[in-house]
Design brief:
Blueprint lengths: L9 H29 L3 H9 L16 H6 L7 H27 L5 H27 L4 H29 L7
Helix pairs in contact: 1-6, 2-5, 2-6, 4-5, 4-6, 5-6
Length: 178
């Protein structure tokens, strides 16, 4: 591919466009899934990984019917093995996806310091996202904020990884320099 994506053949632009759109959709689904489990709140994130806390045991006289609680179900703490199984898969796929998207971004003509900032932010988001579940479960509930923040950091990076190449491929005037 040529240095500038805007000068690439249409076939290359289409394959890159389809890949970026699919990655954007995949990240959106990941966010929807995490939101369904946690509402992006620290309390629900802790509950998802560490299980429900032991609350006062209510006797039947204090029991209040709550349909939403019945729908949610009881959350068991994730075992070390479960967390390793989840982290193992994500430790391979997330960096690979970010690498490919970084490689596409590297072919754009934006300034290097912008690219480096995006790469560094994505790396930070990956580390926070991969380490967060284990840290929440076995270290401190405070790391739930790290997991939530990782989604926002990665979201910002995904917007950049997708929008900058798309702009350069399809919207940037041929003679303009960024």
């Amino acid at each position: 591919m040529a240095r500038g994506l805007s000068k690439s053949p249409t076939s290359n632009k289409l394959s890159v466009t389809f890949f970026l759109l699919l990655m954007g959709f995949a990240f959106y689904i990941s966010c929807v899934s995490f939101h369904e489990r946690t509402d992006f709140t620290p309390e629900n994130t802790v509950r998802h990984y560490s299980g429900d806390e032991e609350e006062e045991k209510n006797d039947d006289s204090n029991y209040e019917y709550d349909e939403s609680l019945l729908q949610e179900g009881f959350y068991f703490p994730k075992s070390y093995r479960e967390l390793l199984d989840i982290t193992h898969v994500h430790a391979f796929t997330i960096p690979l996806i970010i690498f490919v998207m970084s490689r596409i971004l590297s072919m754009t003509q934006i300034r290097d310091w912008i690219k480096i900032t995006i790469y560094g932010t994505a790396f930070t988001g990956i580390i926070m996202n991969l380490s967060g579940p284990l840290l929440v479960r076995f270290t401190s509930d405070l790391f739930s904020i790290s997991i939530i923040a990782s989604y926002f950091l990665l979201g910002i990076c995904f917007v950049a990884f997708i929008s900058i190449p798309m702009y350069e491929m399809w919207l940037k005037p041929k003679e303009a320099n960024m």
